[in-house]
Amino acid sequence: ICIIVGETGDQIKAAVGDGASLGARVTYVEQSAPLGIAHAVGLARDFVGQDRFVVFLGDNFILGGIQSFVESFQAQNCQILLHEVPNPADFGVVALKDGRIVSIQEKPQSPPSNLAIVGIYMFDPSVFEAIDHIRPSGRNELEITDAIRYLLEHGREVGYQVLTAPWIDTGKKDDLLNANRLILASLAARNDGTVDAETRTTGTVVIQKGARVEKSVLHGPCIIGENTLIRDAYIGPYTSIYHDCHVEGSEVDFCIILEHSSIVNIPGRLTESVIGRYVELSRATRRPAASKMVLGDHSKVELR
Predict the structure, then answer these.
(1) Are 296 and 278 in contact (CB under 8 A)?
(2) Comparing C-alpha atoms, which of 170, 189, 165, 191 is closest to residue 256?
(3) According to the model, what pLDDT value does residue 8 have?
(4) Which of 52, 73, 190, 282 fits a 20 to 30 Å CA distance from 297?
(5) In 10 A of CB 91, how many CB atoms?
């Protein structure tokens, strides 16, 4: 696996490492600036060599994976995945005629169809010729849609398949929560941690190694990560809590809570939320009562 990284490269490397934990071997290639998907693909030329390969944009989620689509990629120079969407103007869009792709447009004002291009592409090395011949778009990026259009215009075989499985472009909070919901619904219950006699669990609950649950209610589907402590808490459906977290005296549901975060004695219930790493969320115990926050870019908070 070759991962093209930019300004968040250190975080990605810390999460993925050399790939051994995933049963893979990972090579990292630096992209000096966000110059487009086609530019990023071009950086993988030496890694790919003469092999056929998959480009998988990291914010795409397809329930069930892509193995069947990869196996069907045999004779074509390129294969793309399509999905019907209600807002095609926000995506790259194709027009079909007699079962063949006749045009590709990036975020068109008047979309020719509702078939959006999913951010997962299959190529043979001919795509590098296309990348060498396209020019930056108006936003100074080498667009992957332009490279695919070049292949079409130069007689290369560009195939497609229309997805029927759920596909989520996880660029926003609600998209992340929806992907999380679908994944949790597919898990089988498991307990590799410690649950005391006063805790009640219903539904599919996954408790990972080293996690402790005390005097709590867990209503699945939910997952409690390694070395996390849940005490005197309610963990509701569709909640994923990552490793080394602490939730106590609080209620959460339909949430994603990332590693090393703590939620302690908060009033009310936390719902439909994504909590980042090393976050501390607690109830103020001193007067005057006030809310104190450090929020990152594009945060959204509702207070009642």
Answers:
(1) no
(2) 170
(3) 92
(4) 282
(5) 23
pLDDT at 288 over 90: no
Residue 158 forms beta bridges with which residues?
78
> What is the three-class DSSP state of 13?
helix
Global confidence as pTM: 0.83
Pairing of strands 167-169, 60-62: antiparallel
273: helix, strand or coil: strand
* Other beta carbons less than 10 A from residue 88's beta carbon: 21
**Cβ neighbours of residue 178 closer than 8 Å, sequence gap 6 or more:** 168
Q: In this predicted structure, what is the pLDDT of residue 94?
A: 93
- pLDDT of 71 > 80? The answer is yes
Cross-strand bridge partners of residue 153 = none
User: From CA 90, how far away is CA 31, in angstroms rounded?
Assistant: 25
Do 117 and 87 touch, CB atoms closer than 8 A? no
Q: According to the model, what pLDDT value does residue 228 have?
A: 98
* CA distances from residue 188 to 121, 191, 214, 221, 258 in whole angstroms, order as listed: 31, 10, 22, 9, 21
The kind and range of the H/E element at 148 are helix 144-153
Question: What is the average pLDDT across 233-245?
Answer: 97
* Strand 234-235, strand 251-257: pairing: parallel
